[in-house]
Amino acid sequence: MFGNPPAPILRHPADAHVQAVDLSDDGCWFASCGEDMTVRVTNLTDDDPAKTTLTFRGHERELKSIDFSPDCSWLVSTS
Fold first, then answer.
1. Mean confidence (pLDDT) of the chain
2. CB within 8 A of 6, min separation 6: which ones?
3. Any idea what DSSP says for residue 73?
4. Cα–Cα distance measured from residue 36 to residue 24, given in angstroms and rounded to the nearest whole number
5. pTM for the full model?
6. 3-class SS letters over 26-37
7. pLDDT > 70: what percent of the chain?
8. What's the pLDDT band for 3 if we cut at 50, 70, 90?
9. Of 59, 62, 75, which Cα lies nearest the Cα of 23?
10. CA nearest 63: which of 14, 20, 9, 10?
11. Strands, DSSP E only, in the chain?
């Protein structure tokens, strides 16, 4: 009736809760962070965003927040 649901764009491991998400002011970028101590950033303008999601590691504790700068040139995460 409604067709197939869209494939997920962004995934964190099933045992890691997503703590925060942010959409850039220009609507081009989506970011998330969570208990798995990673930041995931997806370019929503790409033909297949799921294939180009970037994963950043380096925090030593679970992440609590994430925020794009108003001009979309910076992304800040905190743990």
1. 85
2. none
3. S
4. 22
5. 0.79
6. CCCEEEEEECCC
7. 80
8. low
9. 75
10. 20
11. 18-23, 29-34, 38-43, 54-57, 65-68, 75-78
